[in-house]
Amino acid sequence: MRYIDTHAHYNDKVYKDNLDEILAIIKDANVDKIINVGYSIEGSRECIELAKKYDYIFSTIGIHPESIEEDVDKLEELYNINKGEKIVAVGEIGLDYAYVKDNKEKQINLFKKQIKLAEKLKLPIIIHSRDAALDTYNIIKENVNIGTKLLFHCFAPTDDLVRLVLERKYFVAFGGNITYPRNISFKKYIEMIPIEQMVMETDSPYLSPIPFRGKINNSSNLNIICKKLAEYKNINEEELSKILYNNSIKLFDLK
Ligand SMILES: [Zn+2]
Fold this sequence. Notes:
With 255 residues, the chain is an alpha/beta fold. It has a single domain (3-252), classed as TIM Barrel, CATH 3.20.20.140. 42% of the residues lie in helices and 17% in strands. The protein contains nine helices and eight strands. The chain has helices at 19-28, 41-53, 72-81, 104-121, 133-143, 159-168, 186-192, 222-233, 237-252, and strands at residues 3-8, 31-36, 57-61, 87-96, 125-130, 150-152, 171-174, 198-200. Strands 1-2-3-4-5-6-7-8 form an eight-stranded parallel sheet. The radius of gyration is 17 Å and the shape is globular. The two termini are 19 Å apart. The relative contact order is 0.15. The structure holds zinc ion. Zinc ion is lined by residues 7, 9, 37, 92, 203.
């Protein structure tokens, strides 16, 4: 089996002292590609640098709602300076009302601007949505062109979002959170979504799956997520890993 981690943050400071050691463990666990995801201008710059250093790491550029004051023009500038450097998506972008609720308008504006940027650059979009399913649904429905590729990172399914995923053939990524007991409700949605629209992620260093919950995560835990998904989809793990691998290649046009 081999895996692709479609969402990780190896530029995080928790890996500063042992990144090469961690990456060696990940390689040994059959993870052969990683998308390292941006969340701010500086974070995106670090992602690009990481992708320059390691041939199996790809980068994205994006401003997460937590970096609300940042400028999308600067993000575009960063892209232009680094064209051809394995930048495979715009993300993670979206809405986070768990973090702050009193700046919704600003979050929505930043989100819309980056949707436009992704479409201008012809890149897929990676969505972050937390406690904001309805607004996320409405904004995507009204602002994302048909045919633009889109991935819901750390997907927290709702009836509306799943309908949108099915209608527009969007991708969803599941991570360690599907192993948490409170998310048993995901099962019925996972059964509804075709495997062809799924990929895996770890969101490292966050969201470690059980039994590593609360510890620093890394991509070698993808096998745990694959196992859980295989169980939900009632399919052989090996077969599932192959399909998810190919989905990731297709979604991000990985070479
Ligand atoms: Zn993330």
